[in-house]
Amino acid sequence: MTYRAGIGLVVLAGILWSLMGLIIRLIDEANTWQVLFWRSAGMVPVLFWVLSRRSGGARFARLKSSGWAGAIAAAGLVAAFAGAIYALQATTVANAIFLYSAASLFTAILAWPVLKEPVQPATWVAIALASLGIFVMVREGLAIGAGDGNIAALVSAAGFSAFTLAVRHARALDLASGVFLGGLASMAVAAIVLWGQGDSVLVPARDALIAMAMGALVLGFGMACYTAGSRAVPAGELALLGLIEVLLAPLWVWALLGETASAGTFAGGALLLAAITGNALWLSRRRGVGAVQA
């Protein structure tokens, strides 16, 4: 695959993922766990098809040997998916997506004790700046009664960081296969939680179809595009291109639904995005244009 084609696929993935908040707003009655169940039900078959075409049964045989890393990856994605859905339901899309974008910096911090990868000085500066942005946004959320949504977004970011570290640690996993495991785990956990709460997985047909379409097209197809494109794009540039999702998500709900966010949200979000962008640019320059993510 050429570099230009890789860029195009990664950008397409970011655009698809940016639609998540808008689609969540179209769901009327389904709660967080019901949305998680049906969204995963739409995503899992797509990723199963992608993995089957890419490596036949070999990929699934390797998944069986992923062990604790596979379990951590699956559990991390359950937290990431459930936290993101709840955050998008409990606070503004801008607030949720800005806080969720901190996952890359959480990963840098956790990679130090887990993978023995030292945190570079520039990344520490980015973490300090991002922490200030997170503080501004969480304080704003508490002031307007959306503190639980902010916390859920941070839990989501932490869950995705755990997933990323598990995938990087285990050779039997890659992004697509790890998300496939996470999708299966999400369906199981959502069903158990709903049963424990006395709720049902059954929701209005419209809500179920919207959630399944979100899983199949936005998450499943988006992940397939990102996985394919990431092989031809340097890691630092991937981090920058990932900001497409963060920038577009608030624009969709503003343009189509008239949803806005507070000044504190945008101030904190600006600090967070500046930290992530600066760190990504520094990583890209340090690793060089030829450094391609495996």
From TrEMBL:
Coiled coil: none
Domain of life of the source: Bacteria
Domain EamA residues, every copy: 5-138, 150-277
One annotated Gene Ontology cellular component of this protein: membrane
KW Transmembrane helix (keyword) present: yes
Pfam entry (one): EamA
Keyword Flavoprotein: no
Classification via InterPro entries: EamA_dom, EmrE-like
Membrane-spanning segments: 7-27, 33-51, 67-88, 94-115, 122-139, 151-168, 175-196, 208-226, 238-257, 263-283
Keywords, ordered alphabetically: Membrane, Transmembrane, Transmembrane helix
Protein name, UniProt field: EamA family transporter
Species for this entry: Frigidibacter albus
Lineage of origin: Bacteria, Pseudomonadati, Pseudomonadota, Alphaproteobacteria, Rhodobacterales
